[in-house]
Amino acid sequence: MDISFLGGPRPQRGVGVIAPFDFALDRELWRWVPDEVSLHLTRTPFVPVEVSLDLARLVSEHETLGDGVRTLTAIAPEVVAYACTSGSFVGGIAGERAMCEAMTRAGAIPAVTTSGALLEALAELGVRRVALVTPYTVSVTRALEEYVAEAGVAVTGCAFMGLTRHIWKVPYRDVADMARRAVGRRADALFISCTNLPTYDVIPQLEAELRIPVLSANQVTMWAALRRLGTRAVGPYQALIDPAARIDPATPSGPVLPDVPDVPEQEQQ
């Protein structure tokens, strides 16, 4: 059979992704990516440490990030994303910027991180007050609160799960329950932290219910990386990537829910 008419494959554009060694949600990242873009993932070396501030520091060392970039340069991605929230906020805003600079030096290409992408997304949506959901322990969660506050964004509520492993196994219903706990009337948006926490399908449901933009770690990472390519992330009814999904300024914003205090430190799945 003559198949010469097929020609070659379509030209592809590449996004390199450096993820922590325990990252398990490759398929979720791909769901935000348009057909003409490919993801090229690499992981940091294994370390026998549970999810904690110590692990966040270990997986975000500049030498580790530089090695990750160098493993990707042979396939010539146009941007590299460090897909780890805690690893990119543990050093504050100055630390996040230094990570981007280290990655850029290693590969001479633009670099983004999850936590840097979060601040970029909050600015894009004009968010000044945000509620947070995390799967982390109290110490890691507090570090995220400090990072957001350093950027001048007020944290209006926070709920956390206290997990130190197997975060990718958390079901959507638990993510949604934590979101409802965290969000009160004052929040302009909700951020669901951790690239290892599943969020793709829960985002449009929560936006419809809570009537505020809902951001997640993987969502903002892909949005920011693809933005560097001059293209857009894809996904149904997500305010960050679809302006049509944003609440009309004339419509009262915020969910019709009472304010809820933080979840106790030891709340688990």
From TrEMBL:
List, alphabetically, the InterPro entries matched.
Answer: Iso_Racemase_Enz_sf, MaiA/AMDase
- Spell out the residue ranges making up region: Disordered: 248-269
Classification via Pfam families: Amdase
Q: Sorted alphabetically, which Gene3D superfamilies does this protein's record hold? A: 3.40.50.12500
The name of this protein is Aspartate/glutamate racemase family protein
- Superkingdom of the organism of origin: Bacteria
